[in-house]
Amino acid sequence: MQVPLRPEIDTGTGATSGERARAMIEIASVSKRFETSGRKSHLALSDINLTVDDGAFVSILGPSGCGKSTLLYIVGGFVAPSEGVARMKGTTITGPGPDRGPVFQEFALFPWKTVLGNVTYGLRQQGVKRGEAEAQSLRLIEMVGLKGFEHFYPKELSGGMKQRVAIARTLAYRPSVLLMDEPFGALDAHTRTRLQNDLLNIWERDRKTVLFVTHSVEEAVFLSDKVVVMTRAPGRIKQIVDIDLPRPRIRAELLLDSHYQKYVVDIERMIDDGRDDAEHS
Amino acid sequence: MTSARSIIAKLSPLLACLGLLAVWQIAALWLDTESFPTASHALQTVPQILGDPEQLLNILDSIRRMVIGFSLAVLISIPLGLAMGRSARVSAFFNPLLMMIYPVPKAALMPVIMLWLGVGDASKTLVIFLGVSLPVIYHSFQGAKAVEEKMLWSGAAMGLNGLQRMVRIVLPAALPEILTGCRTGLVLALITMVTSEMIARQSGAGNILFNAMDMAQYDTVFAMIIIIGALGIVLDAAFDKLRWRLVKWAEPHQEILLGAS
Q1: How many Cβ pairs within 8 Å bridge chains A and B?
Q2: Contact B130, B101 (CB under 8 A)
Q3: B163 vs chain A: nearest CA distance in angstroms?
């Protein structure tokens, strides 16, 4: 079934002309169908077209079960699309690789490794000598605010600290793209806010391309250059919203900013419109 | 590390042993029959047995077979269990086979094995091997199956290939569960060791025990029970210490959760 390309799903990168406006990730006509019991199957994603520019912070926002994580896994190479292709710097993605670093909601740390062991893991795998890998890792551990916890095991850390380790572990092997799958979804509101601020600080330093999956509208608007709003199953792109807010963004200022508030309200409306049980007033 | 709790924890097995010996002593004195020697009598016989070079060699023979059977079983069962836990195809192939072998008492296979391999070391070691294999396979399988997919994905993103993920992620992640299987396997190794020697009487600790039984040397019988029991307790305690050292990073409640599920 061919779904016509909607006008708002504009893959054009020319609009925001900048020296870094090069396509990092291209997702072309991607669909994903999961085989369930018997002959039934579930269409998780339908005809997704999306381009992520180099250095952009792009959030994928949608209700649970809209396939937003699946889309991220396809880019990560962990899941193969049923139709269409995903490309990374023009090369078709066929599997995972160190150019795309995932950060999961479940942290997925190696529990038998200390904080330092977790962070050095990727560097050691790439053949970096132990001394050099540890020196780099110690700097990263300090950057994510865990100085003094280098020799702790994951079980000894809180959820927020675990996620800091996971972020450092992924940043360590210098992926071109960070793939963040609801990274703060399992954390309490306070920890979540602090990690959002810290992530933004880290990101604003080196402007790594980030694909960020979330179901929080505020989080998406606060962090992103672009918010991709998805519809409920089967997941399609409903709209892509450019977030034109100045950086560096400071949370306290932004919350009072009417532009920020308008983005949040507009996007919330957009999501509500897509609901079957939407109230008509 | 000498808190009151740890001292009590250390002493409680010793107290249990002393209690058991006391009950035995009283019961034996009260019953006063030849076939039930007192604990003190049996204990006095222990050094006699261990001091006799021939008997000692017999016991060391048993331990050697046990160590070989256990080691071989662990070396083969862990990779097999892990492969079964991660691959539906491998699991589909081996599962029916294991389900058939599982309920068969391994000692019941002894006559057939003796027919093929004789009454020597080979058949006894093989029975020990079979006894140890199943729990180790089962726990390795469960451990590998429970490994978080996202952990493997994280490894894959770092560039680990399939075999590296198996050895460097699945194996350590499943280690707490694997070692639980090995601990059960160790106890089963001791049990199958004695039963195999009971059936194929030729040498070993089981042989001493049952020969003494035939000759109504009840002191020796009970002394051997003490020796075998002590061996089991020492091995189990030593293994548990090793296990604790290897998986001190694991969540303490992990095992209970796995046991309950």
Answers
A1: 67
A2: yes
A3: 14
Buried b (16+ CB within 10 A) or exposed e, B201-212: eebbbbbbbbeb
CATH superfamily entry for domain B41-260:
MetI-like (1.10.3720.10)
Residues A186 and A242 in one domain: yes
ipTM score for this prediction: 0.88
Which residues does chain A have with pLDDT short of 70? 1-21, 38, 274-281
A39 with A156, same domain: the answer is no
Distance from CA of B166 to the nearest CA of A (A): 13
Which residues span the domain enclosing A128? 108-174
b (16+ CB within 10 A) / e for B134-154: bbbbbbbbbbbbbbbebbbbb
Residues B107/B196, Cβ–Cβ less than 8 Å: yes
Edge-to-edge strands of the sheet including A91-92?
A41-53, A23-35, A83-88, A91-92
Residue B214 pLDDT exceeds 70:
yes
- All residues of chain A having their beta carbon less than 8 Å from the beta carbon of residue B173 are 110-112
